[in-house]
Amino acid sequence: xxxxxxxxxxxxxxxxxxxxxxxxxxxxxxxxxxxxxxxxxxxxxxxxxxxxxxxxxxxxxxxxxxxxxxxxxxxxxxxxxxxxxxxxxxxxxxxxxxxxxxxxxxxxxxxxxxxxxxxxxxxxxxxxxxxxxxxxxxxxxxxxxxxxxxxxxxxxxxxx
Length: 160
Hints:
Order of helices and strands: EHEHEEEHEEH
Strand content: 15-25%
Structural class: alpha/beta
Oligomer: single chain
Number of strands: 7
Number of helices: 4
Low-confidence stretches: none
Helix content: 25-40%
Shape: globular
Mean pLDDT: 80
């Protein structure tokens, strides 16, 4: 299933050290009409203002590497505080935006399907963030375990 966002989606993009990885990310986003914005001091403000427009969405990759290890899914670790995953949950909590977990499964070389899961509610307060974090973690851990051979971040996973 190809998802065309019709210029209604934007996402932060952190250039990778490997130029081949950058090319894969760039082509995938271009093919799906996802506009990107580089990190910087105004990133949060730009994303929040974009999200204020009805029908617009933020596309965030949450299995990022920070401090030389994968931050999410948690796989039994504590909820990370400084990462895309936490930013996405706090943004949804602040704006009332829908959190729609999406996974990608490669079906052939250069081909993939999007899998959309049930929306996750982000209740108010710290407990609400923790509840949503664990709900999303359960979704993504199951998806990754089912397609472990395709997980792009496996080599960065550090478990306690």
